[in-house]
Amino acid sequence: MKIYNIVKGKGIFLPLYLFTFLLLFVSCSDDDPFSTITPDDNPMIISPVFPDRNADGSLPTISTFYRDSAFVYNVIVTPKEYTTVTWNIDGEQVAEGDSINISLPAGTYDLKIVATTQAGKSTSREGLVKVLPATGDPYSEASGFERIIAPNAAAKLYGTNLNLVKNVIINGVTIPATYNEEDQSLSYVVPADLQDGTYHVLLADADGNQFGANTVQVTSKPTVTSGADRFGANASVTLTGVNLDKVASLTIGNATVDNFTNKSATELTFTSPDLEVGDYTISGKATDGSDVQFYSANGTTAQQTVTITSETTLWEGHHYVSWALDDGDPNKTFNLLGADVFANIKAGTTLKVYYSLNPADDYHQMQIATGWWTSLPSSAGTYVLTDDPGVIEMTLNKADLDLIQQQAGFLLVGHGYYVDRVTIK
Q: What is the C-alpha separation between 93 and 90, in angstroms, rounded?
């Protein structure tokens, strides 16, 4: 049997099974949808698409807004019917569902969106949310190792409008704070019972208004924050940090140092081993047997690389310099190396000034000068400092050395930096 369809007198043959299929196809409509999604499908976050991590491995910033606005965000996931979305800020769940609307104090936060199916399968997106302070707010942004603090120890914050702050709040504990006009910092004492961990900081003004100030890392472990990246062989070395009175020994290469000429909570001084010039691993042990920690921009680790140089250290410490200070203030200049130190130095000697920046200052400049504030002829005049920490290097010639003797010695002047070490080679 054949079915015929006559169109303008032409016969068209359609087999019965094909005609039946077409009838079924025509009978389907949008009124009768069907879904192929099941609870066992792998979850996907379709939107938004987060940027890749930065070249250094750090998380990308996915949202920036002012603290007087809310963080509003939406996601699209599949399989939607079987998936739960949770929103986590700094590791704590703050919302559930396909959207979030939340207010946050100023600061930087780690946002993680997790989509989990009923079958227990999950996927996630992670990025940074940056909340900017409103105009006139007290604010402090993390600048470096000042954010590594120890229980029952003095600590500082740097920032803007900190003169309005009366208290610092960490982990719900209100701590009296003192504003320092000289370096525009905020001083406080860390509570003795504060447990190790990372905490968001709040700043409170006289009326009790609270403002964000990013995070601090509390540690009871001995942690070296500066001085362990480079020093001379068989030279006096001073490391700075927190809980350094708990250090039992340091190991540099195959040499162990356990005799310290000065040991306090914030400083550790010793004579370095007489090693060949080169790179070595430095590590340490605390009095309780745990590892000494070493801070860098990438975090804290139990060891780091130290470069042993053939340089001779003329001075080492942490001396602030600002020509904005009054005459007579010891930090108006660095004048801790007299003319006699340079009396026997020969022309062609390389002078290096190791420095770190004061994050509270608006600009950072250095001049290498004589006691009369005359720039040394071989210097570049004014150095604009950008690296933190960094080093300025120059070769001393006879004119430089003669001028140091003729004009009351050697000075480092400028603004906004700390002198950490002065060496010659």
A: 9
Q: What are the phi and psi torsion angles at 307 (to 5°)? A: -100, 120
289: which strand partners? none
Nearest-angstrom CA–CA distance, 31 and 118: 28
User: What pTM did the predictor assign?
Assistant: 0.69
| CA distances, 74 to each of 66, 93, 410 (Å) | 19, 16, 61
The pLDDT of residue 311: 82
Report the distance separating Cα 389 and Cα 14, nearest Å.
84
User: Residue 20: pLDDT band by 50, 70, 90 thresholds?
Assistant: very low
Consecutive H or E run containing 19: helix 16-27
Q: What pairing do the DSSP bridges indicate for beta strands 210-218 and 148-149?
A: parallel
33 CB burial (10 A radius; 0-12, 13-18, 19+)? exposed
d(CA 213, CA 139): 6
**Section 88-92 average pLDDT:** 94
What distance in Å separates the CA atoms of residue 309 and residue 53, rounded to the nearest whole number? Answer: 36
Contact assessment for residue 153 and residue 170, using Cβ atoms and an 8 Å cutoff: no
Local structure of 359: helix, strand or coil: coil
CB 199 within 8 A of CB 175: no
Buried b (16+ CB within 10 A) or exposed e, 220-247: bbbbbbbbbebbbbebebbbbbbbbebb
pLDDT surpasses 50 at 213: yes
> CA-to-CA distance for 71 and 68, rounded, in angstroms?
10
State residue 6's pLDDT score: 33
The Cα 352–Cα 354 span in angstroms is 6
CB 87 within 8 A of CB 100: yes
At 1 the pLDDT is 32
Among 47-51, 208-212, 360-364, which range has the highest average pLDDT?
A: 208-212
Question: Residue written as tokens 């150095």?
Answer: 383
How distant, in Å, are the alpha carbons of 2, 4, 14, 16, 109 from that of 7? 16, 10, 13, 18, 71
- Contact residues for 416 (Cβ-Cβ < 8 A; gap 6+): 321, 322, 357, 358, 361, 362, 363, 364, 365, 385
CB burial of 401-415 (b: ≥16 within 10 Å; e: otherwise) equals: bebbeebebbbbbbb
